[in-house]
Structures are given as C-alpha cells and as structure tokens.
Amino acid sequence: DKFRIAVLVGSLRKDSFNRQLAHALRRMAPEDVVLTELRIDDLPPYNQDDDAHQADSVRRLKTEVAASQGVLFVTPEYNRSIPGVLKNAIDHASRPYGQSAWAGKPAGVIGVSIGAAGTCMAQQHLRNVLAYLDMPTLAQPEAFIQAKDGLFQEDGQIGEASRQFVQGWLDRYVAWVKRFAQV
Ligand code: FNR
Q1: Fewer CB within 10 A of the end CB, N or C, for the chain?
Q2: Which fold has domain 3-181?
Q3: Is the pTM of this model over 0.95?
Q4: What is the pLDDT of residues 76-107, one digit of tens each?
Q5: ipTM
Q6: Whose CA is closest to atom 13 on ligand 1?
Q7: For the packed helices 160-181 and 17-28, what is the interaxial angle rounded to 10 degrees?
Q8: Which residues form the NADPH-dependent FMN reductase-like domain (predicted)?
C-alpha cells in the first residue's frame, strides 16, 4: 500500500512559486508515496458558530487529512507569518474541540519566498501552531528557499542548483512519515 501525504499550499495565486514547488515535490516522491494537494480556496472564513454543522468543504478537508499518513505544508511568508488562508484551513480542521484532524499526523514544513530569508519566519510561526496541534514536525533539515531564476526548469522540475538539496529534504521527510506510520 502507498503512503499518502496531504499537501497544503499556503498561496492561492495561480502562478504561485509554492504551488510549483509542491508540484515538483510530488514528482520527486518515491514510488510508494503519493503527494496530493488539498483544496483550501473554497473554505469559508472560520466561524466558531458553525462548529456543530461544518461546511461540506470543511468536512472534505478533514476526511482527506484523516486518510493521510502525513501532512506537508508548502507555504509562502506573508508579513513575517503564514498567510491567513492557511491559518483558516488549519483552524477549520482543528474543530470541533476534541475532533481535530491534525493530531498525531507527522508534518513537514517547506516554503519559497522572494526574500533571502526564504519563509523562515513564517515557518517558525507555523511550527508553533503545529506543536499545539500535536503534530510531530520534522525539525531538520530546514528548507528556506529563495525564488531565483532557474529555481524551476521549463518542465517544472527543480533546477540543477537546488535539486539535490530539495530531494534530500524530501527523502528525510518521507522517512519521518514512515517512522510514524509503522506500528
Ligand atoms: C509578501 N511577500 C513576502 N516575502 C517574504 O519573504 N516575507 C514576507 O514577510 C512577505 N510578506 C508578504 C506579504 C504579502 C501580503 C504578500 C502578497 C507577499 C512576498 C512573497 O514572498 C511573494 O509574493 C511570493 O511570491 C508569495 O508566494 P507564492 O504566491 O509565489 O507561492
């Protein structure tokens, strides 16, 4: 059986570098691992009043997370934190209280930004949230990627200069997921 890893991309932008990175990662995964991006663009703004009757899109998100052995966050940095759309998705699937979809799922955090700091502040904020949600999160290696010419090839694969680094990171994260999937 294959290991399923849910991918949440923190940008809704059509040409998002982070979505491009997520697509490249999907193609770099070993044969027994499937990376699937989950939709977050159709989730309503979170409202606690709706906890007892969550929207279909929210229940879909929770079902997909529950069916995954790991959750990979590929996110830009917005104003030194994670984008609101990503926090919105995280909040939705953490509710109702006691029925969080996140608990125990081994997480990975990676991201690309224009700035040289390569999403490091956003990742640090995200790690704080994931710790509270009881998601064991790969600590090392860290991956702070800057969007430069050549990061992505024409065919969507990671360019020469960064390919080995990104593959190495993914291999470590996949090993992390498998470790938690074992009984
Ligand atoms: C940004 N950007 C940005 N970059 C960064 O390195 N640190 C930051 O704090 C911010 N803040 C920020 C806020 C907002 C509202 C926007 C729209 C952008 C720039 C960001 O790295 C750039 O737009 C990336 O291209 C966003 O990622 P995607 O959409 O390409 O995946």
Answers
A1: C
A2: Rossmann fold (3.40.50)
A3: yes
A4: 999 999 999 999 999 999 999 999 999 999 99
A5: 0.99
A6: 78
A7: 70
A8: 4-145
